[in-house]
Design brief:
By secondary structure, the chain is an alpha+beta fold. The protein has a single domain (about 5-195), classed as Glutaredoxin, CATH 3.40.30. About 55% of the residues lie in helices and about 10% in strands. It is built from 10 helices and 4 strands; from the N terminus they run E-H-E-H-H-H-H-H-H-H-H-E-E-H. Strands 2-1-3-4 form a 4-stranded mixed β-sheet, with helices on both faces. The termini are close together. The mean pLDDT is about 95.
């Protein structure tokens, strides 16, 4: 079965619609997905950026928020611009690594994006992640303990380093089995088509 790696950072705006639609599209295409959380912050710093390019270039940022609102409207997804951007996605990414090793990982990822860009909540606050975990019927304390353990922390660092080595510079990014890189929610269909070749 063809495979596609879905690289995402929970702080990434366009990763929200991608995460919400990638599952059914991949299934219809006969492509197996691997969800790959990572952190954009260290990669941005490689480029000399201390924050998102959408903050560094205000005109680009204004366009992005309006475009995301349009995109979500077309997909009938809720949208609420968070007061803080970008948000601290470290804890959410660590929890995602724990969750993706189990059967509820993709549900967790979608629920985090829904809380952040669907409801405008701050996912950098542990209480928000606890709410998401409880909403999925998980033992929040046990999951958070595992996510913040010495066993999990290096996994996220390693995944971020792998993204860097693949040449990933933004999210969402999609990498096919033959190493072809596609960047952006609007390139998802092209990535799936390539993966099938």
């Amino acid at each position: 079965m063809p495979t596609l790696d879905f690289w995402f950072d929970f702080a990434s705006t366009y990763s929200y619609p991608a995460a919400m639609r990638i599952g059914p599209l991949a299934k219809a295409s006969g492509v197996s997905l691997r969800w790959r959380p990572f952190l954009l912050g260290p990669i941005f710093k490689d480029h000399g950026w201390e924050t998102s390019p959408f903050n560094l270039y205000p005109a680009k940022g204004r366009y992005m928020w309006r475009d995301l609102e349009r995109t979500c409207g077309a997909l009938k997804q809720p949208f609420a611009q968070p007061a803080l951007f970008p948000q601290n996605s470290l804890l959410a990414a660590r929890v995602a690594l724990v969750a993706l090793a189990q059967e509820w990982g993709e549900d967790f990822c979608r629920a985090v994006y829904g809380a952040e860009f669907g409801a405008g909540r701050n996912i950098g606050e542990p209480a928000v992640i606890v709410d998401v975990l409880k909403g999925l019927g998980q033992d929040a304390n046990a999951v958070l303990e595992q996510a913040q353990s010495d066993a999990t922390k290096p996994l996220l660092r390693a995944q971020t380093e792998q993204a860097r080595k693949l040449g990933i510079f933004g999210a969402p990014s999609f990498v096919t089995a033959d190493g072809e890189l596609f960047w952006g929610n609007d390139r998802l269909e092209a990535a799936l088509d390539w993966a099938k070749k």
